[in-house]
Write a structure and sequence with these properties.
The chain has 15 helices and eleven strands. The protein is α/β, with parallel strands linked by helices. It folds into two domains: 206 residues, Aspartate Aminotransferase, domain 2 (3-Layer(aba) Sandwich); 136 residues, Alpha-Beta Complex (Aspartate Aminotransferase, domain 1), CATH 3.90.1150. A seven-stranded mixed sheet has the order 1-7-6-5-4-2-3, with helices on both faces.
């Protein structure tokens, strides 16, 4: 019997023997799952170092058990066939399977389209169909530099910038703005980035009521839905009936470069979204098989456990930096962590009462002293250079006072690229530095 035949016939082997043989057979092969036309050269992310400012999830080993090694072996057989590879499942079929397993969507009411080019490209595709010269405006919780770039790349699209710190604010401002500006679309993210607030059924009902009255299309970017605990992978998009829903695999599988994205377009909208054609059937087949393998091996559950452990360790390290004595002297800096759910790839720490300079100096000192990088509210709520300069020079106008005050009230932490041990140290450094600056 050849080595290949032995690998394909595990009937006489124990699980441990099977794992050892598969591992040895695969060790000599290149450790990537790329196709000629796919937008990734390596399946799993990048090494960002000591970084708590980026919500893209870092590298986790794939191939730690027999099930995962079997998946790698099959994928490499496909990879060797290149653009002639064929899969037993299509991108549309694996998307539909995941949605049926995890959501309450009635898929018969939607057209499903897929791509391997990521959520940004899918949002651009949708907006290119929705935006018109007569209705060019797109609203979202601003500032958000990610959506700024996406909307800015759509011909004739214009951005509605408005400060939105809560879900209630979002709905109220949408209701107000929609009567004064020719909106074509409103983009929602649940949980919101960076503040983590969530939309209720009532919020979505109010948004869709106005949207239908004024021919505005709500568009959900469901990038975080799949990171929740199995059985609880909910998004407020499930309350909608006339919204476009876009979801990518990048966060749930810690595979930023994978790019597999699906778009649900309600049939009642009579919209035909024309995405750029995929490069070849073989690469699309490989992408479908990679997604199926990651989903069926429950790799996403390991991603969730990884983020949960890091977040818990960070918070524990933070609280352990305080003693009974110094806690009394720093009451004004003691606040709270806000986490939409335990495996959310970012959380915020909100101060009770601080001067803007504390937040600015805190983030700067952490980077300079420890190489620890986190972001502050000024990176998200305002234009950082303009607002920081205004605060430092004492020239904060009434127009930006509320935004600047809110921006100084929190820092944003992404427990996505470190071990629990290093996350604990980072949390301790945050708490220690905060006390020194208070």
């Amino acid at each position: 019997m050849t080595v290949k035949e032995e690998l394909l016939d595990p009937s006489r082997e124990t699980e441990e023997e099977r794992f050892a043989k598969l591992k040895k057979a695969l060790e000599s092969q290149p450790n990537h799952l790329a196709g000629k036309h796919l937008p990734y050269g390596s399946l799993f992310g990048f090494d960002y170092g000591f970084n708590f400012m980026d919500a893209n999830i870092g590298f986790l080993d794939f191939g730690i058990n027999t099930h995962e090694l079997e998946a790698i072996r099959k994928l490499r057989v496909m990879q060797q066939k290149g653009c002639d590879a064929e899969s037993k499942i299509t991108l549309e079929e694996i998307a539909a399977k995941i949605l049926r397993d995890e959501t309450t969507f009635d898929l018969s009411q939607y057209n499903i389209s897929t791509s391997t080019k990521g959520a940004r490209e899918a949002i651009i595709t949708a907006l290119e169909t929705i935006v018109t010269p007569q209705k060019p405006f797109v609203m979202y919780a601003s500032p958000n530099w990610i959506f700024d770039g996406i909307v800015g790349s759509v011909k004739e699209a214009r951005i509605v910038e408005t400060f939105i710190p809560t879900a209630d604010d979002f709905v109220e401002k949408f209701e107000f703005i929609s009567t004064r500006i020719p909106l074509c679309a409103v983009i929602l993210v649940d949980p919101a980035n960076p503040l983590g607030y969530r939309f209720s059924k009532r919020h979505i009902e109010r948004i869709e009521k106005v949207a239908e009255e004024r021919s505005i299309i709500p568009l959900f970017d469901d990038v975080f839905r799949g990171l929740q605990e199995k059985g609880k992978r909910h998004s407020s998009s499930e309350y909608s009936h006339c919204s476009i829903i876009i979801e990518t695999t990048s966060k749930r599988f810690g595979a930023r470069g994978l790019g597999v994205t699906w778009t649900l377009t309600p049939k009642e909208l009579n919209l035909k979204l024309t995405a750029k054609e995929e490069s070849c059937l073989g690469c699309s087949s490989l992408a479908a098989s990679v997604t199926q393998s990651l989903y069926e091996t429950k790799y996403g559950e390991r991603i969730q456990a990884y983020i949960t452990a890091n977040a818990a360790a960070f918070k524990q390290g933070f609280y352990d930096s305080f003693t009974a004595d110094n806690l009394i002297g720093t009451k004004k800096t003691i606040g709270r962590f806000v986490h939409a759910f335990e495996s959310m790839p970012f959380m915020t720490y909100h101060f009770e009462e601080v001067e803007p300079e504390l937040t600015i100096n805190l983030v700067r000192d952490l980077k300079e002293r420890y190489g620890l990088r986190i972001t502050q509210g000024f990176d998200w709520i305002c234009q950082i250079r303009e607002k920081e300069k205004a605060i430092k020079e004492g020239k904060v106008t009434s127009l930006i006072e509320r935004e600047a005050s809110f921006a100084s009230s929190y820092v944003r932490i992404c427990p996505t690229k470190e071990t629990p041990e290093r996350s604990y140290i980072a949390g301790n450094q945050l708490g220690t530095t905060m006390q020194e600056l208070a």
